[in-house]
């Protein structure tokens, strides 16, 4: 994740980040409702709705093999079996597999007394097995540097905590190899092992990329040394599996001149490993983060920062004719830069602010890809879970101690959508250029994303604002046209994420924020964390392929309307 300067506060524990923001005592009187009209034209396709949401990741690989990690992986896999991908750091880092914040290890590489390589895939296999057994596939990050191979091996494992300086994480794992041929052989042996264990057809579906954010301190070598590291790694992957999907460079931000030089090298530079021209690149990846603040006693998110980075990244890729049609994966795409950090400005994470931001930002990623004419394949959410931490501790996660946060339910909503994107307009939406430039600082963003798969129409509606302050409820009138004209009736289902629906955090607060919930409390919280339907499935009666439906959508809420003609 991108390097940021974070405000550290002692209140960032056990839900203390967000509980004060939810307390009724600090909420002012709610303004009068705001009328919003949303019009969906179900017979006006806007191209395929790519499931860009199906990518996730984390710093710590070893949590995937633990109790709550396995549970969450299973839930991710259920969203779209064998179509969900997971990216993680530290897959080649030396160590015994004991996890810690911003740390992980597999001990895949050692050397004997004579300096000969010794490979051990036990821990790595356990991680990939945990994915694959639950319908999740690897987005395999080739890194970091094993201790015996590092040009500066000591100190190696850091002891970082959220109160430490971020720079303390950059230890021996971040340095170039002493021998690039040994590095290449490690990668070759790893991919060869994966093909033998999981089969060629399976490994062909994975993504392979080198390192993480090599344009900042995650890489302690020069840009030229990284290009050499990358060339040797990609050549090794392709020697082991010529049909492997390879790419990169997963830069911090869009990469700027560093990223442009890297792409130029891949397109037409001299390959350090082969001596030929260019380096294979099947997909392009970069990162994009928002910029939250704590101002005037509340959290203010920075959606514009993230969207501007994405726009700049798309423009850079599109400037290469050889790359414009290549798939793009935004390899980390989040409201802030550090999942394991804590602080007042990160108090949005347990709340519906995270879920509404996610809905609003993902829709604009689709819009930006269309504007720049690029092939957006994925936007990876860098959030998973932290085993053994207090409940609702303020980390950027999808679940806490096995309880799903509100944001997890946005992905459940996304998973219900599919087929073609169809036209959706809202008179409460912030125009794309304005939200990229200014964010959402005046009127809130009440907008929609719609899809059609056969006769099934889904409409995602959100009510987002950068500031976590009270606001008027949006009284949304949804009009859908272009439904089958012969359909006399349709089933309508509404799902909701707000303060009282699909929200384990507010349920926990109402219980008195128990540090150790009883079995009965835990079961109730587990249920509260799942996507909740509003009321019963309704029957609506379109006339001439047109129907109207009204919903009241509170600030920072998200709704999914599913219409199925019968």
What are the salient characteristics of this protein?
566 residues; alpha/beta; TIM Barrel; Immunoglobulin-like; 27% helix; globular; disordered N terminus
Give the topology.
Elements: H1 19-22, E1 34-48, E2 55-58, H2 67-79, E3 84-88, E4 109-111, E5 117-119, H3 122-132, E6 136-142, H4 180-198, H5 200-203, E7 207-210, H6 223-240, E8 245-251, H7 256-268, E9 283-289, E10 293-295, E11 298-300, H8 303-318, E12 327-334, H9 352-372, E13 375-381, E14 399-400, E15 403-404, H10 406-416, E16 420-426, H11 432-438, E17 445-453, E18 456-464, E19 474-481, E20 490-497, H12 504-510, H13 519-528, E21 532-533, E22 538-540, E23 547-553, E24 558-565
Parallel strand pairs: 1-19, 2-3, 2-13, 3-6, 6-7, 7-8, 8-9, 9-12, 12-13
Antiparallel strand pairs: 1-16, 4-5, 10-11, 14-15, 16-17, 17-18, 18-24, 19-23, 20-21, 20-22, 20-24
CATH topology of the largest domain: TIM Barrel
CATH superfamily descriptor of the largest domain: Glycosidases
End-to-end span in angstroms? 47 Å
Total number of β-strand segments?
24
Q: What is the count of DSSP helices, taking H or I runs of 4+ residues?
A: 13
Tell me the major beta sheet.
Answer: 10 strands, mixed
């Amino acid at each position: 994740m991108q390097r940021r300067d974070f405000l550290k506060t002692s209140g960032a524990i056990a839900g203390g980040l967000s509980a004060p923001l939810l307390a009724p005592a600090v909420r002012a009187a709610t303004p009068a409702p705001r009328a919003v009209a949303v019009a969906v034209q179900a017979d006006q396709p806007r191209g395929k709705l790519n499931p860009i949401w199906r990518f996730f990741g984390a710093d710590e690989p070893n949590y995937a093999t633990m109790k709550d990690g396995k549970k969450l992986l299973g839930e991710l896999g259920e969203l779209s079996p064998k179509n969900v991908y997971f990216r993680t750091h530290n897959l080649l880092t030396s160590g015994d597999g004991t996890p810690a914040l911003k740390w992980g290890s597999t001990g895949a590489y050692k050397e004997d007394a004579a300096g000969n390589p010794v490979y051990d895939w036990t821990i790595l296999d356990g991680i990939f097995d945990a994915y694959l057994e639950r319908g999740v596939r690897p987005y395999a990050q080739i890194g970091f540097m094993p201790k015996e191979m590092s040009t500066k091996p000591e100190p190696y494992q850091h002891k970082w905590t959220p109160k430490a300086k971020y720079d303390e994480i950059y230890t021996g794992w971040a340095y170039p190899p002493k021998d690039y041929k040994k590095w290449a052989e490690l990668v070759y042996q790893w991919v060869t092992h994966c093909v033998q264990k999981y089969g060629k057809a399976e490994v062909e579906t994975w993504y392979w990329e080198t390192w993480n954010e090599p344009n900042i301190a995650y890489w302690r070598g020069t840009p030229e040394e990284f290009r050499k590291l990358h060339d040797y790694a990609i050549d090794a992957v392709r020697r082991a599996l010529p049909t492997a999907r390879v790419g990169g460079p997963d830069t911090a931000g869009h990469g700027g001149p560093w990223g442009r030089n890297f792409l130029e090298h891949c397109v037409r530079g001299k390959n350090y490993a082969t001596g030929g021209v260019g380096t294979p690149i099947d997909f392009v990846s970069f990162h994009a983060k928002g910029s939250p603040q704590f101002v005037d006693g509340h959290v203010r998110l920075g959606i514009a920062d993230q969207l501007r980075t994405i726009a700049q990244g798309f423009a850079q890729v599109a400037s290469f004719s050889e790359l414009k049609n290549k798939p793009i994966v935004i390899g980390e795409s989040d409201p802030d830069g550090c999942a394991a950090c804590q602080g007042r400005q990160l108090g949005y994470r347990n709340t519906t602010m995270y879920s509404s931001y996610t809905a609003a930002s993902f829709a604009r990623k689709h819009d930006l890809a269309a504007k720049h004419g690029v092939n957006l394949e994925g936007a990876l959410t860098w959030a998973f879970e932290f085993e053994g931490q207090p409940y609702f501790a303020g980390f950027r996660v999808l679940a806490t101690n096995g309880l799903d946060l509100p944001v997890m339910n946005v992905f459940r909503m996304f998973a219900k959508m599919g087929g073609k994107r169809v036209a959706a307009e809202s008179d409460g939406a912030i125009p794309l250029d304005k939200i990229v430039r200014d964010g959402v600082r005046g009127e809130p963003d009440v907008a929609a994303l719609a899809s059609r798969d056969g006769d099934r129409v889904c409409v995602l509606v959100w009510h987002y604002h950068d500031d976590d302050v009270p606001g008027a409820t949006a009284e949304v009138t949804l009009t859908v046209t272009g439904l089958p004209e012969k359909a006399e009736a349709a089933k309508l289902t509404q799902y909701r994420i707000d303060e009282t629906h699909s929200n384990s955090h507010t349920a926990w607060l109402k219980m008195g924020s128990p540090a150790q919930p009883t079995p009965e409390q835990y079961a109730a919280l587990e249920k509260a964390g799942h996507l909740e339907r509003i009321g019963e499935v309704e029957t609506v009666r379109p006339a001439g392929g047109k129907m109207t439906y009204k919903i009241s959508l509170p600030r920072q809420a998200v709704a999914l309307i599913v219409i199925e003609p019968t």
